[in-house]
Amino acid sequence: MMIKKLLFLLPLALVGAAEAEKVRIGYVQVLPTSLSLIAREQGYYKEQGLDVELVPFGSGPVLMQALASGKLDAAQVGFAPVYVWAARGAPVRVIGKAANADLSILARNDSGIKGPADLKGKRVGVLPSGSVPETLFSGLVLPKFGLDDKSVTVVNSEAPNLVGGLATNRFDAAVLLEPWTTIAQLQLPLREAYNINTVWKSSLGAVLAARAELINKQPETVKKLVAAQAKAVSFVKQQPGEAAKILAREFFPNGIKTEKGTIPGEQVVQSALKGLSFDSKITGADLESAEEYAQLLQQLGNVQKTVPINRVVHQRFTR
């Protein structure tokens, strides 16, 4: 009798497993866009009946090509590249928030750079055009100090390669996001030339985005993604130590090598998380920041004309 019961329950279990919705989510390899890693590890996607495949990318603009073409269903990415592609007519929308930008300009000690004004004539590494770091660096920082892309050589590179560019003297300075900011300071003789949050205090940096097709045809799936995101945010806020362990396994399973020895990845991530502010809800202040992004992107030539923010940002899923 027991065997019969087990045989009866087995097909039901297989059916339940088969019914899990498959979703492909891309994420940029920086901490502000790492919430999907937490959600997967903690089982938040499974709780929502989702079978999620995570795909890493080195930068937002490259990731957005995959999202716009339908190779991904959703993405953890910076707001700026989502807006650029949406303004160009791509069927992509913001459905939730993730974290602030927390950007620093780090310069080699032998570069002679002590502040932004010293960047004149120097080579600066930054994520590709249309990314959050490049938008804020080129659109806010350079003009503030009387500089532009003619007086400063801006070299585009993917996130994991920026530290290497500093180490090999390819760059005199670089605009970095965590955890690469912390790693660069541990491995190299650098100084912080400027913290971009001095001029950009907004909490709008990384977002959760999705294809319009998913939003329109599977709104319940979108709600599940947002719910999992919210739980991941709560986990990081309430248990930063445990979150650091999870992210360290993903980013630096073997720790970080420095001249003083190998530093555990968990210690590196825990330090890097201190400068980040995670949140899943989109506020009125975030919408104002989105408008500022739009203006900067137009000024930089990333978009020909701006589009209404309500055509890019869907607030209904986080209210």
TrEMBL record:
The keyword Transcription does not apply. It is found in: Endomembrane system; Periplasm. Pfam families: NMT1. Residues 1-20 form the signal peptide. InterPro entries: NrtA/CpmA_ABC-bd_dom, Solute-binding_3/MltF_N, SsuA/THI5. Residues 22-254 form the Solute-binding protein family 3/N-terminal domain. The keyword Cytoplasm does not apply. Its main location: membrane. GO terms for cellular component: endomembrane system; periplasmic space. SMART domains: PBPb. Keywords: Cell inner membrane, Cell membrane, Membrane, Signal, Transport. PANTHER family: ALIPHATIC SULFONATES-BINDING PROTEIN-RELATED (PTHR30024), TAURINE-BINDING PERIPLASMIC PROTEIN (PTHR30024:SF47). Belongs to the bacterial solute-binding protein SsuA/TauA family. This is ABC-type nitrate/sulfonate/bicarbonate transport system, periplasmic component. It comes from Deinococcus peraridilitoris (strain DSM 19664 / LMG 22246 / CIP 109416 / KR-200). The lineage of its organism: Bacteria, Thermotogati, Deinococcota, Deinococci, Deinococcales.
